[in-house]
Amino acid sequence: MTANGTSTAEGATNTKYVVEEQNTALVGAIGRPRRVLDVGCGVGLNGEAAKRRGAHVTGIEIVPASIDRAKERLDEVLAIDVTSDEAVTKGLAGRSFDLLLFADMLEHVADPIAVIQRLLPYLEDGGHVIVSLPNVAAWTVRLGLLAGKFEYTQSGILDDSHLRFFTRETGRQMLERAGLEVLRLGQNPMLVRAAKDVVLSAQRAVAPGGTPDPESLRKSLPYKLYQGLVRPVEDVVAARAPELLSFQNVYVARKPPKARKLSLTVGMLTMNEEDSIEAMMGEIRRVAPDAKILCVDSSTDRTPEIAARLGARVLRQLPPRGHGPAMELLMYSAAAESDLLIYLDCDFTYPADYIPVLRRIVEEEGVDVVNCARTRTRPAAMPLPNYLANRSFAALAHVMHGIPTCDVHSGMRAYRSSMMRAFDFDGEGDALPIDTLLFPAKCGYRVVEMPIDYQERVGQSKLRKIAGTVWTMIRLVNALPVGQRGSSRYELR
């Protein structure tokens, strides 16, 4: 939220020094949405980040100077009073979104729950809400209270335009009372930021006329060095005691998905599957006649021609870039057109008969990921070294992340599309299935792991064992800061 033209206690008009910067934790949680509503968008810095990831971004703002700047960054900006039912109904009629952003906006309204509920009808089923709220329990405020002070300021946690104040827990409670399911929490640290008054005073002192550009701090070299070198360390420290060390608490929540029929894409990564593609597609059509079939293909034989002739959508990836980039393309392409992706290999190692089972679990039980585990016991079709390697990787995932999986590399899974769009999965390299299992499991989504029959392969294996092992270790380590260790919503069946 931007603000200016406020009045001092003496009644004189004083123009605030408005500071516009990107909300780092909020932007990091955006994922890859399709349609975003940025409520209280300011000059559009947060919404611009979503637009760079391919989203259509609509901003809501009421400050004229901010609207003009935001229009240069976002697809559209609407002047809507979000405290008015009539204004919201008129301004958003016929629109729907899969992500709502509230970046330091709800503390400026008298009834934040009513504002959220007023906008929820425009959020699709399972759609996400990301909220940033100043943390009134930060150490700086606590020290002030110990000294007998609770003084309003022109910006920050005790901004004199704030009508509501939140701790980490009361912010969560507010979102839950609004009807949202809170999935995970993040924070922007209150360490270096504690010196903001000194920094802003220096900015005003050197600015022409004493009124700096609201974006001048963000564009400065010291700020960029801080973000690159100091901020990562602050994040680690603040995560140890977020109630005390957070400047802002950032909440990722969603509109709880309802039990309903979901549009389905069945996806496969294909590379020289000429011997199996026609029969595999026939099996998919038999068990899921309404499903779209999507192939990301890197073949040099007739596989893509056969698949296209049989009605599949084929995305060519030539020259081949490996499993990770192909899987990334498959997931986000499917998430753009269907509610559910069921992925399986094209070599008959995973029976297509499981597709209706996975679909039912997601549609009827509200599950976000179904992981089909091959290795509860050793399957006859899997060589012993492969079995031991898979169980070892799963054991590492359990020890490092607290997720009780027995198969982190399964080639058959179901993914709810709204969950996929909530993350920005990076497919570079191999072993992407580790991220697409651990990230949702550690971030509050409901994951079910069920045993599955593993059959003899048709055709040749394309597995890159050495590269896969290296990337498995890299991804297991890189996933450590994501979400929270363990998951009470990971169910073994």
UniProtKB/TrEMBL annotation:
What is a GO molecular function of this protein? methyltransferase activity
Q: What are the residue boundaries of the Glycosyltransferase 2-like domain, all occurrences included? A: 266-419
Instruction: List the InterPro entries.
Output: Glyco_trans_2-like (IPR001173), Glycosyltransferase_2 (IPR050256), Nucleotide-diphossugar_trans (IPR029044), SAM-dependent_MTases_sf (IPR029063)
Among the record's GO biological process terms, what is one?
Answer: methylation
Q: Which Pfam families match?
A: Glycos_transf_2, Methyltransf_23
Q: Which UniProt keywords apply?
A: Methyltransferase, Transferase
Q: What is this protein called?
A: Methyltransferase domain-containing protein
Species for this entry: Polyangium sorediatum
